[in-house]
Amino acid sequence: MNVDPSLLQRLGRLELLARQAVEGFITGMHKSPFHGFSVEFAEHRLYNPGESTRHIDWKLYGRTDKLFVKRYEEETNLRCQLVLDCSSSMWYPAEVQPNGPDMNKLKFAIHSSAALMELFRRQRDAVGLSVFSEDLDAHIPAKSSAAHMRMIYHELERLLDSVGQRQKATSTVEALHQIAEASPRRSLVIVFSDLLDRGGDVDELMAALQHLRHNKHEVVLFHVLEDSTEMNFDFADRPTIFEDLETGEEVRLHPMEVRAAYRDRMANLRKELEIRCAQYRIDWVDVDIASGVFPVLSAYLVKRAKLRSSRF
To answer: How would you classify the pairing of strands 283-288 and 250-253?
Structure first.
């Protein structure tokens, strides 16, 4: 790719890549897939015979014996909080594998966040960034100024440079509770995580996500994994030493002896997350990083835009 050095110096490589990518997968999308996520009740008006009954206020009809329709007012600008898991498990795979993805999970999350931020920037939306591992490492509230956006790009670049560190544990549940408390205004919260907490308690995770929903936030959860090994356990059938990236612990085993049980457990986890998120109206996105950042994002945005069009 031939890049103008002055442009690269002014924007930074991550921002430049994000701008080029957004040009590609947003072109032709007539409505934003995000505007309208937070619709607020504005007023009542009398129902006109022949129009849709979808928004009739039946409770008010019961009190007044008259048909009124609820009118809503869409927010013209939204607030988005990007939330990145930067624990050591997100740095997997540490090395590019033959026929595998050319990036790890954290790089996938960073590049995805940069592309989404560029989309929001073009819509003059406010964007913030939260980064967590075993603690909430950084929380930048949402703003829309150019200087603020540049600061977030700088933080994402810093995270890219940090890839390769070891033994940073995960505390997704605690971090999400802290983010819910630190985000008082209604926002779109987009989380990128492999959800590989050492505790692995789905009930506690759902309680943390519900905390965000209780505070009127819309939640999108990108469940980021490398499917061939993390879901299917497709390792060579020979004795292998596996290392926990977050603790440094090692275990020696033969993949063939545990593959079936491992696959069943991961499939059950994925299914439970899908069902529970649907139950609590959390937008769960199943991600295999081998699919690539922009195919994953564009497919999700197109799907979201279609769903939104069907609602309004």
So the answer is: unpaired
Could you list the pLDDT tens digit for every one of the 312 residues in the chain? Answer: 444 444 334 446 677 777 776 766 665 555 667 766 655 555 788 888 888 888 888 888 888 988 988 776 555 578 999 999 999 899 998 765 545 556 899 999 999 999 999 888 888 899 999 999 988 999 999 999 999 999 999 999 888 887 655 667 888 999 999 999 998 888 999 999 999 886 668 999 999 999 999 998 999 999 999 999 999 999 999 999 998 888 888 999 999 999 999 999 999 999 999 999 999 999 999 999 999 998 899 889 888 877 665 554
- CATH class entry, domain 79-311: alpha beta
Counts for the chain of helices (H) and strands (E), in that order: 9, 10
Q: Are 69 and 56 in contact (CB under 8 A)?
A: yes
Place of tokens 């603690």: 135
* Domains of the chain by residue range: 39-74, 79-311
Element (H, E) at 252: strand 250-253
The type of residue at 95 is E
13-to-52, 58, 141, 187 alpha-carbon distances in Å = 50, 54, 24, 28
Collapsed DSSP state (helix, strand, coil) of residue 204: helix
Vertex 83, ends 80 and 87: CA angle to 5°?
170
Among 82, 104, 225, 107, which residue's Cα sits nearest to residue 160? Answer: 107
